[in-house]
Design brief:
Layout (H helix, E strand, L loop, with lengths): L10 H14 L4 H8 L3 H9 L5 E2 L4 E2 L1
C-alpha cells in the first residue's frame, strides 16, 4: 500500500496500515514518514481528526 496518498484514505484503514508498517517494517513513525516522504504532522492530524492519537512509547496510533 502506497501511503503517498494518505490524505484521501479512510482514517481507520490508514491507522491500521500505519500501525502495521511501524510494527513490522520500521522502528518508529519518523522512519515511516521519511521512507514514504510524507508530512508527519499532516499524517498525525489526519488520524487525530478520527480520534486517534500517536503514542510514541507504544509506537502506534490508538
Amino acid at each position: 500500500m502506497d501511503l503517498a496518498k494518505f490524505e484521501s484514505m479512510d482514517p481507520i484503514m490508514l491507522m491500521s496500515i500505519v500501525n502495521m508498517k511501524v510494527r513490522d517494517e520500521f522502528q518508529n513513525l519518523d522512519e515511516l514518514v521519511k521512507y514514504y516522504d510524507i508530512d508527519r504532522q499532516k499524517l498525525i492530524n489526519k488520524l487525530a481528526s478520527a480520534g486517534f492519537e500517536y503514542l510514541p512509547e507504544a509506537k502506534q496510533f490508538r
